[in-house]
Write a structure and sequence with these properties.
Layout: E1 2-3, E2 12-13, H1 30-35, H2 48-65, H3 68-90, H4 98-120
Antiparallel strand pairs: 1-2
Length: 140
């Protein structure tokens, strides 16, 4: 399946990734077990099959629960981010200005970690979140 986003965009390929891919348990050698730090010893005894099943089940549950509440939450985060931008830009002339520093860093942090990260990973692809869709987000 291909689609175009914008007048100058290259065709994009949509790929479906199955959530029930079997995961092979890696072989852990005894020398590796003994070289692990005490707080990391649990890695040597991890049941990888059960862990993979748990993560797959969690992913399917989260997909089923995705909906309008997620869009409302995104809009709330965008609103707070925009308020931080206005406060930061409006107070940039104040000296000393820790308010500007906090507001502008919140604006940047929210833009990249709370909005762009989840959008680029497809967190809002299954809901109507407007421009927050991984297939066209950030293309200018």
């Amino acid at each position: 399946v291909t689609s175009r986003v914008g007048p100058r965009s290259k065709p994009l390929l949509a790929v479906a990734i199955p959530l029930d891919i079997p995961v092979a348990e890696p072989q852990v050698e005894e020398s590796t077990k003994s070289s692990l730090a005490p707080e990391d010893q649990w890695i040597a005894n991890l049941d990888y099959d059960s862990f993979a099943k748990d993560v797959t089940a969690l992913g399917k549950d989260l997909l089923r629960e995705t909906g309008d509440e997620d869009v409302e939450h995104l809009q709330k985060i965008v609103g707070w981010r925009n308020i931080a931008a206005v406060v930061g830009l409006a107070s940039v002339w104040v000296t000393p200005n820790p308010i500007t520093v906090a507001a502008l860093s919140t604006w940047t942090y929210a833009s990249w970690t709370m909005i762009a990260h989840h959008t680029c990973h497809g967190g809002y692809n299954r809901v109507d979140a407007g421009r927050f869709n991984s297939r066209g987000f950030g293309l200018g």
